[in-house]
Design brief:
The protein is mostly helical. It has one domain. It is built from four helices and no strands. Helix 2 packs antiparallel against helix 4. The protein is rod-shaped. The two termini are 27 Å apart.
Length: 81
């Protein structure tokens, strides 16, 4: 009997990195919270915000979009790890 390596454990367990998936879900939740706190500004179409928005509104939309993108990337890489 011998101890399994981390790679062998990942192969048996389905290779899902739950830590990475959790971080991704947290980033998405943070993006949603940011959208709610900004009064829903981040849900407006990007071109409307860029054309008629203040710099704060543009930053809010960019931050919410960026957090969601990073969260999706982290969750996706955790599932296919």
């Amino acid at each position: 009997m011998y101890a399994l390596t981390e790679d062998q454990i990942d192969q048996v367990s389905g290779a899902i990195d739950w830590g990475e998936v959790g971080v991704g879900a947290g980033l998405i939740a943070l993006g949603i919270t940011f959208t709610v706190v900004s009064g829903g500004t981040a849900t407006l179409p990007v071109m409307l915000i860029v054309g008629a928005g203040t710099s704060t509104e543009i930053a809010a939309a960019a931050a919410a979009l960026g957090l969601s993108a990073l969260g999706g990337y982290a969750m996706g890489s955790g599932f296919v790890n």
